[in-house]
Design a protein that fits this description.
Blueprint (H helix, E strand, L loop, with lengths): L1 H58 L14 H6 L4 H6 L1 H13 L4 H13 L4 H16 L11 H10 L9 H21 L1 H7 L6 H5 L1
Helix pairs in contact: 1-4, 4-5, 5-6, 5-8
Length: 211
C-alpha cells in the first residue's frame, strides 16, 4: 500500500514538473512578444514625433524657436485616461495615439481629424477651397486612399458644401470620426501594453533613496 502511494506521488510530481517545463517556454514567448510589441510602438512613436518636430521647426523657423518632445512622466501619462481631449491636447500623447491607430490599421481617422483641425484655422478663402478639395479627395470620396467610415448622406452633403467651402464643411464628419475614436480606439489605447508602460513608475534604487 505504501509503495503504491509512493509510486503515485512520484508520477504526480513528474506530471507537475513537465507542466512547469512546458509553461516556462510559454512565459518566455509571452515576454518576447511583449518586448517586440513595445519596441514596434517606440519605432512608430519616434516616427510621428520626428514628423511633428520637423513640422513645428518649419513653422517656427522665422521666430527661431524649436521644441523637443520628451517622454511624459507617469503622472502626466495617467492624465490622458481622464478624458480623450487630454490625450489629443498633448503632443506626445497625440503621437502615441497615432502610433496605436497605425498598429490597428485605422490611422485615417486621426489623420482626417487633424486635417479638419488645420482646415478650420485656414483664413485665406483660396486656401480654404484647395484644402477642402484635398480633404475630400483623400478621405471622403468613394475609394479615397484614406477613406473614412461615414454614412452616404454625410458624404453627399460634403460633396455639395465644398463647391462653396466654409469652415464647417466637414463638421458633421469630424464629429462622427471623433466619436468613433473616443468610444472605440481610445479605450483600447488605454489598455495597450505601450500606454501601460508609460504609466509605470520607475523603481527608486537604494542608492537614490539614501541620497
Amino acid at each position: 500500500m505504501q509503495s503504491a502511494l509512493v509510486l503515485l506521488a512520484v508520477r504526480h510530481g513528474g506530471r507537475m514538473e513537465r507542466g512547469r517545463r512546458r509553461s516556462e517556454p510559454e512565459e518566455a514567448d509571452k515576454g518576447r512578444m511583449k518586448r517586440t510589441i513595445i519596441k514596434d510602438w517606440k519605432t512608430r512613436l519616434s516616427y510621428f514625433l520626428q514628423n511633428s518636430a520637423n513640422s513645428n521647426k518649419r513653422k517656427s523657423k522665422k521666430a527661431g524657436k524649436h521644441r523637443n518632445y520628451f517622454r511624459p512622466s507617469p503622472e502626466e501619462a495617467q492624465l490622458w485616461s481622464e478624458a480623450f481631449d487630454e490625450l489629443l491636447a498633448n503632443k506626445y500623447g497625440l503621437a502615441a495615439f497615432r502610433a496605436f491607430l497605425k498598429s490597428e490599421f485605422c490611422e485615417e481617422n486621426i489623420e482626417f481629424w487633424l486635417a479638419c483641425e488645420d482646415f478650420k484655422k485656414t483664413k485665406s478663402p483660396q486656401k480654404l477651397t484647395s484644402k477642402a478639395k484635398k480633404i475630400y479627395n483623400d478621405f471622403i470620396e468613394k475609394e479615397a486612399p484614406k477613406e473614412i467610415n461615414i454614412d452616404f448622406q454625410t458624404k453627399n452633403m460634403i460633396a455639395q458644401n465644398i463647391q462653396d467651402a466654409t469652415h464647417t464643411c466637414f463638421s458633421a464628419a469630424q464629429k462622427r470620426v471623433y466619436s468613433l475614436m473616443e468610444n472605440n480606439s481610445y479605450p483600447r489605447f488605454l489598455e495597450s501594453e505601450f500606454y501601460q508602460e508609460l504609466c509605470k513608475k520607475t523603481p527608486i534604487s537604494r542608492a537614490a533613496q539614501g541620497t
